[in-house]
Amino acid sequence: MSRALVTLRQVSKRFGDTEVLKGLDLEISEGETFVLLGGSGSGKTVLMKHLEGLLQPDAGSVIIDGHDLRRPEELEVVRREIGVQFQSGALFDSLTVAQNVAFPLRELQHLAPEEIDARVEAMLDLVGLRAAANVLPGELSGGMRKRVAFARAMVLHPKLLLADEPTAGLDPITTETVDDALVAAHRQLRATAFIITHDLPTAFRIADRVGLLFEGKIIEAGPPEQFRASAHPAVRAFLKDWLAREASARED
Question: What is the total count of domains within the chain?
Answer without folding.
Answer: 1
